Amino acid sequence: METSDADLKDLIVQQNRQEGLLNTIWNPYDIHAIYIAEKMGLGAVQKTILTACTSSTQAIAFGFDAIRSKTVEIAVCGGTDSIINTIAMASFGKLGVIPESDQSENSTCKPFDKNRNGTMAGEAAGLVILASASFVERNNLAPIAELVGYGNTLDGYKITAPDPSGTEMKNAMMSALACAKLQPSQIDYIQAHGTATRHNDAIELAAIKSVFKEAIANIEVSSTKNRHGHAIAAAGIQEFNVLLNCFEHNFIPGNISLNNPLDEEVGLLKKNLSKELNYAITNNFAFGGVNTTLVLKNLKNESRTGE
Description:
Number of strands: 10
Radius of gyration: 19 Å
CATH topology: Peroxisomal Thiolase, Chain A, domain 1
Order of helices and strands: HHHEHEHEHEHEHHEEEEEH
Number of helices: 10
CATH class: Alpha Beta
Number of domains: 1
Helix content: 25-40%
Largest sheet: 6 strands, mixed
Strand content: 15-25%
């Protein structure tokens, strides 16, 4: 008998009240975490991470570390952000990463297309609950996936542009695979950062090819930002949950606005695809040159086969 959502919430509250009490001295950046903690009775550890487009991705990675180090048994990780406001739109427009809104084909968000012209403004809020293997087993839970590794690097290049060499993007992916103890050929799908900006997409694809080499021929690559936009600090949690849905349905979303692929050697999907997914990685790269990659294992396939 599986545990219900209500029972799971009670488990989280009970477990965290045993871990410690929340320090309610907060700054404005903590307000979302503090609010959720007070509503759910969470305690022990609280961290607010501000690393632009990798913020919620790093939150998940740090939750993974907290569980792996036995600091906690469960972690609620996520983020929230919106750039659908005048100041943000003007700022990103000034940087040249959002196309003019003229409703023409050139204003469409087109990740990995030769004619890409910028990303789409987005907003999101989301959470994921991470739990130790012992906690899952003890409470008869049925998780969708296992977070098996991550990589985190810094370019040290520019605040507003990625390093053209893509060295640290590459190192983030390699570190994540090493942490997960996986070979590149074991990955079925790469959920790319894919912002549709002139710089990011070309550098990310080059880094992917450098890491996966000949294995890339059998790996699908796509970005979903052409559907939901770029939620900046919440991009990681938004795309993490998209990936969990992909795992549940063995489904890969295509690059729906892709007409002229930037690189024909990479498996850039033009259409949605049904495919068994066992392992996938998700990338997020941020202003300031912060690069974070997560590696997930699909547990739904194991439950389907009764393993």
